[in-house]
Amino acid sequence: MGRSCGEENGVAGAGAARGADGATEAHGAASVWRTGDLHSSDDRAQFSALLEDSAEDLYEHAPCGYLSTLLDGRIAKVNTTLLDWLGYERDDLLGRRHFSDLLTVGGRLYHETHFAPLLRMQGEVSGIALELKAADGSRLPVLVTSTVRTGRDGQPLLIRTTLFDARDRRAYETELLRAREEAERERERLQRLAATLQKTLLPPALANVPGLDVSAYYHIASVDEVGGDFYDLFPLAEGTWGLFLGDVCGKGAAAAAVTSLTRYTLRAAAVYDPDPVAVLGNLNTVLNHEYNGADPRFCTVVFGLLTPDRDQGGFHVTLASGGHPPALLMRADGTADQLPTPGGQLIGVLADAHIGTTAVRLAPGDTLLLHTDGLTEAHVNAVDGEDRYGDDALLDFARTLAPTTASDTVGAIRDLLDTFGSGVDDDTAVLAIHVPRPPSGELT
Fold this sequence. Notes:
The chain is an alpha+beta fold.
């Protein structure tokens, strides 16, 4: 192994040893080699002379360090290259020092506990990173390969070691580590920024609606990017509340900007005209006007109007949807169904989008669940050829919950999302509204 390193670099090493005259000869010979002009006997003789390097010269001036030690580690032979690296004279080492004496304290410990035992067991150890201690006290990082040489009878005689200067590699690794740590700090900073921005896109607290229990949850699929899901519940005129839940296309800062515009537009439009179709129509006009160029932006959204049913109890709910997944209604009698809003189109794509509507009465004990498609499009283990969770599976899940409450529903959804793990690749928002039973009719 030591010979191959020397042989590969023999011409260069020999040229350096001969000085300026040798360099001139090497340049001339190289020129002859390139042109292929080796016809004269003088040219051939000159070129052959340059190739006639002695094995000793190749060993001494190889671009790597060579070291031969006895089985106890005592140095028996060392080449000039290694002596120059460490600043020792040959007599300082031969028969006087052990290989481990050239190592730093940590390297010496590793050599005794790992390197040497492994070498005895395997007969060869390759590419181990160690540090040598030079005569002036400085440190030299090296990559070490050692081989046990045996006699004809198979008995070990000595250890041959090749050492490669790893200073450039160490500098590269140090710089790489510094860059990685800097990148990690930057990633943490961006995560904090994303988390802070995400919080500004969600309401600090949902409105307290007398006669309703409300619960919401936002599942973040990636801490590195701001999602585009949103929800809110807020008061309008006396005895009326508005609610919405939606999903802006895309992620990151651009999606966050659209989300912010969408939330404030919905709130402002609801104050101006609380009719759900009119609210989504206003939002469609704003998004279509602002984002109808080369980078169109749109969203799916459901807007609802809540009013109490003062005669029978419960609440009347009117929902308008623009391309959003259907809400789920879990009844007090244990049944559950979707509330389809057929024909609803994406908000912001067309100048005059069609808005789908539906109306329902929430009786005492009923629970309404709104959600974004991050839940139904989560990847699950393939069953019957299906890879996504899907609307049908969610409906079956809701039927197992009914009758239920808002907090229990959101808790069950959180647990469900956790079972998907990394299969949830899109943010998910859920909003549950429950009408409690009167105290005399509480479930036991």
